[in-house]
Amino acid sequence: MNQFTGAFRDMGTTIVNFLPNVIGAILLLLVAWLVATIVRAIFTKGLKKAGAPNAMVKGHMAKTQEDANSKLDSIGKILYYLIFILFLPSVFDQLNMRAVAAPITNMMDKLLAFIPNLLMAAIILILGYFVAKFVKNLVATLLTTINIDKWFNKLTNKTGTPEKMSASNKNTLANVLANVVFVLVLIPIITVALETLNIDSISRPVSDMLNQVLNMIPNIFVAIILILVGVAIGRFIGDLLASLLKGTGLDNISQSLNSGSRPNMPTLDLATIIGKIVQVLIIVFFTVEALNVLELEVLNNIGTSIIGYLPLVLSGLIILGLGIIGANLLGNYIQRASGNRMYGAIVKYAIIIIAVFMTLDQLNFATSIVNLAFLFIIAGLAVAFAISFGIGGRDFAKRQLDKFEAKAQAEDNKPNDGNL
Asked: What Pfam families does this protein map onto (predicted)?
């Protein structure tokens, strides 16, 4: 009995001795709650009264004022719980729970040491964003003042005034270039902000990638300039060559090719077609050179393949062009000689089909399939013609042969003008 009494007495003594620690922990929790509540109220209500939601909406950090208020409330809650976490090690120490308090203390020490870096990175990003936006607006205003869209529209043959185009489409060249400058200004700022965090596992790969992008930017600008120069030179030379060819009398050939065509059929303008082909070839050469400037292996391989395939394309275009020209000339001649448009059309489209198959073969476009398809088409047409002419057109064939025989006999019965 005395043992039980002594145990209860010891437990009561322990509880009484531990009560100040419990009271101290409760008081610390009350202080933590009070401080956290005051900080959250100062942060949320103070910023709201200072007009932070409107500034967030204007700075595109929030869509609406309600969204801005919601974000401020969320940040206030985060601060509220962080303050509680800051007081937890002291609460656990007060309760003599140092084994639980030690990891939390280490975590909070690291967090407190990281907060200055995080705040500095945030300040750098915010200031950099406003600087980049200022530079973007400055570049957009400058490009709009010099009316760069007008010159770009002239270069690309776009119709419509720049005012109408800018009113209907915000993606004008001035805005696009301004956005590019905005990104270019942000890239080094993001790199500096990441380095400020001192997290090598995150900042080093991202910084290396951004540095590579910065190193490529001059090459990208050179490539864009090469393409624009190629477009301008190609357009100039193409138009000049078309004008020169028209002055050499090539229009006469075009008119003879279009003489037998129907009114609603598209006409052939050889000078314009040759000028456009030359224009496209010049643009392709400049584009390939621009790809090589980027110094990317994949793009270099693509450019080399394009240049290597160009001779086949040129020879294929020549074959197709000669086929179309020959088909038109021969079809028009047969139409005028026979007085039957169908005969001319048959000859014309037969030659065009042969030229198309020869072009596909020259381009190495499924050579075996193209050759087999051509043979099957020719064989099928021959068999169909033989069957239709031999079975369904015997009377027509007999009449045509009688006409041919009568014409031959008439030629034989003509006098030889005394030259016996």
From this structure: MS_channel_1st_1
SS3 content of the chain, % helix, strand, coil (to 5): 85, 0, 15
Largest CA distance in the chain: 169
Q: Does residue 316 contact residue 362 with C-beta atoms inside 8 Å? A: yes
Read off the pLDDT of each residue in 122-144 and give the average, rounded to a whole number: 87
Q: Which residues contact 31 (CB under 8 A, 6 or more apart)?
A: 87
Indicate the helix (H) or strand (E) that contains 215.
Answer: helix 200-247
Between 239 and 410, the higher pLDDT residue? 239
Please tell me whether residue 169 adopts helix, strand or coil conformation: coil
Cα dihedral 403→407→409→414 (10° resolution): 160
- Using CA atoms, how far residue 327 sits from 251, 258, 377, in Å, is 17, 11, 18
User: Does 207 score more than 50 pLDDT?
Assistant: yes
Residues 6+ apart with CB under 8 A from 321: 273
Q: What is the DSSP letter of 339?
A: S
User: Quick one: pLDDT at residue 240?
Assistant: 86
| Alpha-carbon span 174 to 170, nearest angstrom | 9
First to last CA, the chain: 167
Residue 418: phi and psi, rounded to 5, are 80, 0
Tokens of 272: 């314009």
Written as six digits, the tokens of 275 are: 């000028």
* CB contact at 8 A, 44 and 72: yes
Map tokens 């994949």 to a residue: 298
Nearest residue to 311 (alpha-carbon basis) of 354, 242, 362: 362
How do residues 333-384 score in pLDDT, each as one tens digit? 777 776 667 777 877 888 888 888 888 877 777 667 766 776 777 777 677 6
Looking at residue 168, its pLDDT comes to: 42
Query: 231-261: per-residue pLDDT in tens?
Result: 888 888 888 888 887 767 666 665 655 555 5
H or E element: which one contains 271?
helix 270-293
* Residues 291-323 pLDDT 10s: 888 777 777 787 778 778 888 888 888 888 888
**Tokens for 328?**
């038109």
Residues ≥6 apart with Cβ < 8 Å to 204: none
